[in-house]
Design brief:
The complex is a heterotrimer of chains A (374), B (262) and C (288). Chain A has 15 helices and eleven strands. Chain A has 374 residues and is α/β, with parallel strands linked by helices. In chain A, the strands form two sheets. In chain A, strands 3, 4, 5, 6, 7, 8, 9, 10 and 11 form a nine-stranded mixed beta sheet that branches. A two-stranded parallel ribbon of chain A has the order 1-2. Chain A is globular. Chain B is mainly α. Chain B has helices spanning 5-34, 46-53, 55-88, 94-102, 109-115, 117-127, 134-156, 159-168, 173-184, 186-202, 205-209, 215-225, 227-254; strands at 35-36, 42-43. The radius of gyration of chain B is 22 Å and the shape is globular. Helices cover 72% and strands 0% of the residues of chain C. Chain C has helices at 18-38, 50-55, 58-90, 97-110, 114-125, 130-139, 152-177, 180-188, 193-222, 225-230, 238-247, 255-284. In chain C, 53% of the residues are buried. Classes of the chains: A alpha/beta (374), B mainly alpha (262), C mainly alpha (288). Chains B and C meet through helix 1, helix 3, helix 4, helix 5 and helix 7 of B and helix 1, helix 3, helix 4, helix 5 and helix 7 of C.
Chain lengths: 374, 262, 288
């Protein structure tokens, strides 16, 4: 009797253990809309039966989960509120300050739940490493997007881009014209980088820009790391994470970041200037994609339509980012011409590191960055 | 032996220095949270009001408070019957239970979070998806502290005699534990509850890495856009936690300095 | 579970323990084993020692050194200052309100950490902190410098904030355990105050002190939240390197390296806690 009980309880524990050690199965959810369209596999608005049907399906879902969209990043705050105002859909914006990899982690961890992110806005390497998580979709304005900025099936599409820049408060520091200026004594305790380059894509591109300015290339990021070592030794490098608050408070008077983020900071600081150093032009585009397991598949697709509409593209431009349909819209005259003209000037051929170059540079940073700025 | 005057002065000076180190940051946080910066410096309570008006912040406060409540309930439901039973019927398991309860002291919370993803995919699969599922992880977190508090209280009473008396009068085990033992260890249980509440209200590791919006997570996010408001929320939560913990020390004094103090 | 069918062990009475054991198994043992096993697997689940190689890489060694420096220095600072404060408290009359209040406050501050603690120090000696501004106005000195608060030196100051009070609650009982009779006996035998401390009190207190140092070390080594909020540049300590392994958008597929780092943390903390328990056993003989 006792033996049997013992065996039974041991078996129960073992089963529990085995179950807990594996991931739970996926929940099957029915994503078919009233009119019989499976929203989760729709690849264009036409699949729903046109935009009106898409809007109807999306509003029936009533919710949209976005993740890692800081309100002061490329004007996402206004993008979100405009979308909510236009459609009867509630946006839940999770972890606004998270990094790209955390978006993917969230999609995996929260798979099958109501809170899983519906759409992603990712850096290049994370996006290209996770394409099997995305659902292909082509927006109405698909043909306006240059081919090199989209996957042929619409698995991912570049959304907006910009150039790595040095933003600075001209009331606090002298004008910056080149990367080398940052070593001057006037910049003591003033230069910040947006994040850790072993962790954040923006900071990675920042180090890449500095590398190129110092004789490196997309294949050789080492001079960039050396420059930051010097910057740290000179006491110029600040290990603070810059954001609108620190820029407004004057804590981070010089910030190496995407030019559109500098522009966002300028909204609060009149004397803020943004310069793209001509000796080192590094460009980067973010990747937009729909989660294949989106809990609100129709809303996710409507969000894409909104982002790539004239309205959505101009909202990004308002945040200082270069929308991907910018050139086409400039031609058609639908762009916000004032803002399009006011973007920082860029001369020279922009460098966009390839995926392999990013991996190699990333490994170098992993081994050397912590030491470099100690 | 009364300390000499020079020692008393020496002591007062040192105590003041310690007080400065410990209280200046709290005052600084208060100062920060009420400051108006920019063109017209002054004082404002706006950042404190935000706790009640900002929807994200408010929902995270509610989530954290509910989590604290659920953690306490589950902790008591799990721990008290187990510990009573071990004392009465299987004393040879006592060392095992103690070892398991104190294990979270040796395994950093961050390590548990890193390994718990699969377990949580089951939890959300079975129970649905709400910040309240964090209760399970938090019970593990408070296990060592709760165990000590309850263990000390149980040691102070004669559980065996109490329960035998009750059993011989026909009481079932449920009655023994809930109506006889529990009322006699209220102090220990309350102590365990208070420290649990304090830990849960400040917990950041699990919530942030498992993507749940609890108060500390919301504060860290808010800090990026509105530093002073985040400071106000942080100070408020700190004061609440302090009240619970001060309550705890007074309770443990009432129990003649048993447990929870080491 | 103890006792298989082969041994004489009545299982029946142990059955009510199953809910508790099952709970601990699922929420504590399984995650820990996941980490331990994950440390020896690659992304596809094959056995490998490659993750452990990563532990000997520069970044991992730098972080380990940083963690050890941080834990050791805050354990020592905390232990020395905490013991001093504990002595000051114990030297007060047992009924003094100040004594009770200080002990209560220590109990509160020892649990104080994470987001709130990071905020408190940013408000104090951060770039526009209250003390930073005051020092600048009064002495013209730049306390903030180029952001040492957001690196390892800052973590030492900030961690001491919870280490000192923790030492007070852990160590005050040891002072209370020193019986006045011992001192009187020593004085009666002609010993000076110094002799008493040198030959009686210090040898008695030493094991408890060392034990407390180890406890503080483990406490600092395992802490994560405060550092996560405060430090964003560089990965000076192991917990932050684990965060990088999980969340980096530049270095991908590092999850198993994260497991290996987590295993490293378990090993260090376990060693320290075992040593702590050995010392605790020695102290408990006289601290009754």
């Amino acid at each position: 009797m006792n033996t049997r009980k013992a065996l039974a309880s041991l078996t129960a524990m073992a089963t529990l253990f085995a179950m807990a050690a594996c991931a739970a199965p996926d929940k099957e959810t029915d994503t078919t809309t009233e009119s019989g369209v499976d929203a989760a596999t729709a690849t264009s608005a036409a699949d729903f039966g046109g935009m009106d049907a898409l809007v109807k399906a999306a509003e029936a879902e009533g919710k949209l989960n976005v993740i890692a969209l800081p309100p002061d990043w490329a004007n996402y705050g206004e993008v979100i509120s405009s979308f909510e105002a236009k459609y009867d859909i509630d946006i839940s914006s999770d972890q606004p300050t998270a990094a790209s990899q955390e978006e993917i982690n969230a999609a995996n961890d929260l798979k099958g739940t109501e809170r899983a992110p519906d759409v992603f806005d990712l850096g290049q390497s994370v996006a290209l490493a996770n394409t099997d998580l995305f659902a292909p979709y082509q927006v109405e304005t698909w043909s306006d997007i240059p081919d090199e900025f989209k996957d042929a099936d619409g698995t991912w599409v570049n959304d907006y881009g910009g150039y790595m820049s040095i933003g600075y408060d001209s009331a606090v520091v002298p004008d910056v014209t080149s990367v080398a200026d940052l070593l001057k004594p006037e910049f003591k305790g003033k230069v910040a980088l947006n994040g850790d380059p072993t962790q954040a894509g923006a900071a990675f591109s920042g180090v890449m820009m500095v590398a190129i300015a110092n004789g490196g290339s997309a294949d050789d990021i080492a001079p960039g790391v050396d420059f930051f070592t010097d910057l740290k030794k000179a006491g110029n490098f600040l290990t603070v994470d810059p954001d609108s608050t620190t820029i407004e408070q004057g804590t981070t008077p010089v910030v190496i970041d995407w030019d559109y983020l500098g522009a966002a900071a300028a909204a609060n600081v009149d004397t803020w200037k943004t310069v793209v150093p001509e000796e080192a032009v590094v460009a980067g585009y973010y990747y937009q994609a729909i989660n294949a397991d989106a809990p609100h598949p129709a809303a996710a697709r409507l969000w894409q339509e909104f982002l790539y509409s004239d309205e959505g593209q101009n909202l990004w431009l308002k945040g200082g980012a270069r929308p991907i349909r910018g050139d086409a819209m400039a031609e058609a005259g639908t762009i916000d011409a004032d803002r399009w003209g006011a973007l920082p000037e860029v001369s020279g051929e922009p460098v966009v590191p390839s995926d392999e170059q990013t991996v190699t540079a990333g490994e170098y940073l992993a081994a050397n960055w912590s030491k470099a700025i100690r | 032996m009364r300390p000499s005057t020079s020692f008393r002065i020496f002591r007062a000076v040192l105590l003041l220095a310690f007080a400065a180190y410990f209280f200046v940051p709290l005052l600084a946080m208060f100062d920060f949270s009420t400051q108006v910066r920019g063109s017209a410096p002054g004082r404002t309570w706006d950042n404190w009001q935000l706790m009640f008006t900002d929807e994200d912040l408010r929902s995270s406060i509610v989530a954290s408070l509910l989590l604290a409540l659920f953690t306490v309930v589950l902790m008591v439901a799990l721990l008290v019957p187990t510990m009573v039973w071990v004392r009465l019927r299987v004393p040879r398991m006592r060392k095992v239970i103690e070892f398991l309860c104190l294990l979270p002291l040796t395994i950093p919370a961050l390590v548990i979070v890193v390994g718990i993803t699969n377990v949580y995919s089951w939890v959300t699969y079975v129970l649905g998806d709400s910040p309240l599922v964090l209760t399970f992880a938090y019970v593990v977190l408070v296990l060592p502290y709760s165990y000590r508090a309850i263990d000390a209280a149980l040691s102070a009473i004669d559980v065996a005699t109490l329960s035998e008396a009750a059993r011989s009068l026909g009481a079932g085990w449920f009655t023994v534990i809930v109506r006889i033992v529990l009322p006699n260890i209220t102090g220990g249980v309350l102590g365990a509850a208070f420290i649990s509440v304090a830990l849960v209200l400040g917990e950041y590791v699990f919530a942030s890495l498992l993507h749940f919006d609890t108060l500390p997570v919301a504060m860290a996010a808010l800090y990026k856009s509105n530093g002073p408001a985040a400071m106000a929320a942080a100070l408020a939560s700190m004061i609440l936690v302090a009240l619970f913990l001060v309550g705890l020390t007074f309770l443990s004094r009432d129990r003649h300095k048993q447990g929870a103090s080491t | 579970m103890r006792g298989g069918p082969g041994r004489r062990f009545a299982v029946g009475p142990a059955l009510p323990l199953l809910p508790f054991l099952g709970f601990v198994l699922v929420f504590l043992v399984v995650p820990t084993l996941t980490v331990v096993m994950g440390a020896f697997q690659d992304e596809d689940g094959r056995l490998t020692l490659g993750n452990l190689d990563a532990l000997t890489g520069d970044a991992a060694l730098t972080a380990l050194r940083g963690s050890l420096v941080l834990s050791a220095s805050t354990a020592l600072i905390g232990a020395v200052l905490g013991a001093l404060l504990a002595y000051l408290i114990v030297s007060m009359s047992p009924h003094s309100l100040l004594r009770r209040a200080t002990l209560a406050v220590s109990g509160v501050l020892a649990q104080f950490g994470g987001v709130v603690l990071a905020f408190a120090w940013i408000a104090t000696i951060g770039p526009v902190g209250v003390v930073t501004n005051a020092v600048l106005e009064l002495f013209g000195a730049d306390l903030y410098g180029s952001g040492w608060l957001f690196g390892l030196p800052g973590l030492i100051v900030v961690y001491s904030y919870f280490q000192i009070p923790l030492m007070v609650i852990v160590f005050a009982p040891a002072f209370e355990g020193l019986r006045p009779q011992w001192r009187e006996a020593a004085v009666n035998l002609g010993a000076s105050t110094w002799d008493y401390w040198r030959h009686v009190a210090l040898p008695l207190l030493t094991p408890a002190f060392l034990g407390a140092v180890l406890l503080l070390f483990a406490n600092a080594f395992a802490a994560y939240a405060t550092a996560a909020v405060l430090v964003s540049q560089g990965q000076p300590i192991v917990p932050l390197l684990i965060r990088q392994a999980i969340t980096s958008e530049v270095l991908l597929g590092q999850a198993n390296v994260g497991f290996a780092l987590a295993l490293e943390m378990i090993v260090v903390v376990t060693l320290v806690m075992v040593a702590y328990n050995l010392l605790l056993r020695r102290t408990s003989r006289w601290m009754r």
